[in-house]
Amino acid sequence: MIQNTVIEQDFTAIISGDASSASVGLYFCNATLSPDSLTLYAMPSGAPHDDSNTIIKNLPIQPEDTFYFGDEKFILSKGDAIGATALVGGRITATVTSIEI
Questions:
Q1: What is the CATH number of domain 2-100?
Q2: Counting Cβ atoms within 10 Å, is residue 93 exposed (0-12), middle (13-18) or buried (19+)?
Q3: What's the pTM value of the predicted model, to 2 decimals?
Q4: Nearest 5 degrees, angle CA 81-CA 11-CA 59?
């Protein structure tokens, strides 16, 4: 499954676990001509997006550039979520590929 989500200033959910699923790839593309940065969160079920769940803080993504989140994979259980906030918002698109396991 492929999901695309534009990251806003307010918390933006990228993927959540409805059943057990694995996030196979996370891509963040800034297709605009202006820079932005994002903070990425991985939250267990019921947890808020805060510093205790931050996995990347203030990652700059330059204009017309893409950041691929390495070879790391995330296994999500029901209620777990991955989400982000952006400094400006509306410039970075998150693309996640996942499979149900």
A1: 2.60.120.340
A2: middle
A3: 0.90
A4: 90
pLDDT digits (tens, 9 = 90+) for 17-29: 776 777 778 999 9
Say if residues 55 and 41 touch (Cβ distance below 8 Å). yes
Give CA torsion, residues 35, 25, 56, 28, to 10 deg. 10
Cα 81 to Cα 18: distance, rounded to the nearest angstrom: 9
Q: How many CB atoms lie within 10 A of CB 22?
A: 14
Residue with tokens 């492929």: 2
Amino acid at 84: A
Average pLDDT (77-86) is 92
| CA gyration radius, the chain | 13
- List the chain domain ranges: 2-100
DSSP state of 53: G
The values of phi and psi at residue 87, to 5°, are: -65, -45
Calculate mean pLDDT across residues 56-69. Answer: 96
